[in-house]
């Protein structure tokens, strides 16, 4: 809108840029005059705007940049230590994404949560509840085993019944995962047992019969 555009230019000059003296702003303020475009063109030259009057978007952007620079120059001490709202939101998001940063290990709720996890995982109790969080350190073999990629079908946790409720949805999900991992380990153990049985059967298979001793075997 032409009227809004002219009002915008006058506002920038009056409030922020202030290139002209107050008494010299009359022609620019007369937004209904037919000569306003000429006054605006002169104004652009006076503030050294590199764009032509027809380049409205570029002109507006450049004048806004000039206004911001002058505003900052007039209030440098006020703005130099300011943090953009976007940066504040980013910091808050980061803090929310890492709740352990501000964790109070002496909080009774934290201690109760540790004890609930200890009971759930059947970890041996210790006088220092923080020690119980370090109950198992991964060996190099365990780390190497965990880093090996395994192909398989994705598991839908909601289809597996846990059998008990910890009262916490996240803890329930962790327990489901631990139970499934335990089942996988049991299956691997069963496979090794079966392999051992097969190996033993291969040794004792096709026995020779010694009629003199009345025994069957090698």
TrEMBL record:
Q: Which InterPro entries match?
A: RTRAF
The gene that this protein is the product of is RTRAF
Q: What is the lineage of its organism?
A: Eukaryota, Metazoa, Chordata, Craniata, Vertebrata
Q: What name does the UniProt record give this protein?
A: RNA transcription, translation and transport factor protein
The cross-references to PANTHER family, in alphabetical order and at most eight, read: CLE
**Top-level taxon of origin:** Eukaryota
Q: Which family does it belong to?
A: Belongs to the RTRAF family.
